[in-house]
Amino acid sequence: MTEDLTPAQAYAAALARNAEQATALAPFREMYEFGLDPFQIEACRALEAGKGVLVAAPTGSGKTIVGEFAVHLALTQGRKCFYTTPIKALSNQKYADLVKRYGADKVGLLTGDNSVNGDAPIVVMTTEVLRNMLYAGSQALSGLGYVVMDEVHYLSDRFRGAVWEEVIIHLPESVTLVSLSATVSNAEEFGDWLDTVRGDTEVIVSESRPVPLWQHVLAGRRMYDLFEEETDHGGRGASRREVNPDLLRLARTENTRTYNPRDRRRGKMVREADRERERRQRSRIWTPGRPEVIERLDAEGLLPAITFIFSRAGCEAAVQQCLYAGLRLNDDEARLRVREIVEERTAAIPSEDLHVLGYYEWLEALERGIAAHHAGMLPTFKEVVEELFVRGLVKAVFATETLALGINMPARTVILEKLVKWNGEQHADITPGEYTQLTGRAGRRGIDVEGHAVVLWQRGLDPGHLAGLAGTRTYPLRSSFRPSYNMAVNLVDQFGRHRSRELLETSFAQFQADRSVVGISRQVQKNEEGLDGYREGMTCHLGDFEEYARLRRDLKDRETELARQGAAQRRAQAASSLEKLKPGDVIHVPTGKFAGLALVLDPGIPAGRTNGHRGFEHHDGPRPLVLTAERQVKRLASIDFPVPVEALERMRIPKSFNPRSPQSRRDLASALRSKAGHINPERHQRQRAAAADDREIARLRTEIRAHPCHGCDEREDHARWAERYHRLQRDTQQLERRIEGRTNTIARTFDRIVALLTELDYLRGDDVTDNGKRLARLYGELDLLASECLRDRVWEGLTPAELAACVSALVFEARQADDAVAPKLPTGNAKAALGEMVRIWGRLDALEEEFKINQAEGVGQREPDLGFAWAAYQWASDKSLDEVLREAEMPAGDFVRWCKQVIDVLGQIAAAAPKENSTVAKNARKAVESLLRGVVAYSSVG
Fold this sequence. Notes:
- It contains 35 helices and 26 strands.
- The chain is of the alpha/beta class and 942 residues long.
- Strand 9 (213-219) and strand 10 (222-225) form a beta hairpin.
């Protein structure tokens, strides 16, 4: 090529090469065995030019190279670089990578429970740690030149996302920000905001995957391509991709196939397994079993693979199924290497704990090349699985979606068993963003020519819907920013109330709200034009049709209101009848999933709020706990009792009855059926409708009949136009209210928080009181409750173990509400202190309601959860792991994670507690020492 250049062109090219060699990027590029992609080079050049960058690219595309270049620049310039990640596992992984490259003396790690070489020029940390440093004015910020925010799209997370915005807003202007994000559809909008709050920011978006992705559906023995081969172009995001017609034909055939066996067999419902067996016999296809899928992929050379199962129990069951099926993916040499690595990594675990942790079963699966990966596992076990998978010694991993959050575990193939997952409230379809995140693990750069995403056939699967998930590669980044109590006192302390308010107005949340107002205003203008047209359509030559339509609407509204009042009256009668129930009453549940005979175990009359979330509690009063005739113990709600209920009979409940014991439930349910199975409940008599005797309804009907427009031949046509006019007018008014509500929303929330804190003497104007300075040191969801407990000396005189139990209530949240049995609590002082904490929360909850601070909007204090108090107390009291886990009925990974969160908050309390006339600070430090032992201590990096 060079001989084709003119002398001038050759000279210009030589100058460009020399200029490139003089940059910091040139030596950085030589550190990698592969060449950098254009988007990586563009981002690195922008960084070297002194600009901030936002890089949005698919999972596995290598965007962390840009973050590593920021590290390189910092070291070259003699400045510091902080590398932040959303989760500790990612911090640990990035720390190990940077130590390997730059040496342990130049790299530190800060993750709340780990502090390694924190004064190093490169420090990897969780985002919360950096936020805390900014508020505390830490000396470690001196000389800081670059901050890398990996996985910055975490900003959308409704629980923790606000931390990212706090950091972005409060970082010193001299710091260059490197934001790394998954592909989001509004990267330019986010970049515009960064430009506003951080200065010159380059937005670099890359849509292409480094390894092409092929999408498949595995049905029975056949693997179908999701898209037609000639239009897919290797999954590189071609402009037009048609769904495979063979797959569409199959779905039509299978989803409409009739299945009509006898619904009852010998009086009992057919078991689901029997149904599935018959279905498979009648059908040409089926959903392959887990071992069958892995064997199939192994035969086709598509391992290693990650199978995403949205359930921890499902992941463990999948491993067991593969073991029972005799699956072996490793040869003898690999098996010995696995054992060697596992024994080396777990050498610190006491031998007596190994059996409790299921070590030997776990090791057997690893030796065969099979493993689970989920949050319930011990962190050490998860790290070993990650290492073995990257080394190619584990070839099939069954994982929950948490693995998709940035952990470096690329595979050749990703399998999705279902396209539905439990989101904490209900089973919901996975979003295009979640699908992209999960399948982004498929295809290892530099190893695989292509990656594969396989969705298992499920009855009812819609290929068109799946194609929509696979074809929509982006999702919008939405701010979840909300002011908190801790944030408010820290801001006022540093900037005063007025400047704090202005700072909050610069948040991405307000930026998005203000932008959305422009679109809403345009819609209001369009609606007003439409209203003029509708008004013309409803014009009547006989009279004022708008007046006539209003009378008809008033009549409808009155009828609806009376019906609502009648329903409310029936609910009140039902609630009143529930309040009269006593343990041992036999009742008939009239409707719902548990309709039929039931025995009241606990009337469930609330002492206050039922679950601590305003907007979500059951307003209708009692929630009786019952045993049904089918042996189920369930907490019922008012919705199960649309009519009043009466006791049909009385029964004695044995003192030995245990609702968690299947035998106890079976015996008592049998006695219930014997005692009251013959009783037929009386049918509730319906009352005369209130509308029949209502004077207002009678008046409106008279006026409607007397109105001139009532006799119009085109009355109903005019009425349809009038209804459209009314609906559009109502929508327009709602839009106008939204415009009003979205302006200064964050600042208004901040004002309400400041007002409450002023009421409690945490703030006095622009001054932060001693109480406020204590609150400023407490970070977490229940920051204000913790501060009030310190102020009221609730924890004085507690032992370290009792204090650990109380602090656990500030961090723990049960994965699923368990209404059946109250949690076991330590006795004595700890139990009294926990009760006092709940009472203080009740007082704060009432204050929040008074000041219109709404938990449903992500602001405020949830009710403390006492479910981990006994486990924390036992562990801090030096009980064995076996005893603690057995009583807690909790996986080891969850136990370790909650212990570490308790340790983190205990550290904050030790720093915030009074130093004089108080034992709390000393006992908090002792509690940390008591908890930081055994599995909790050795599951850390460093």
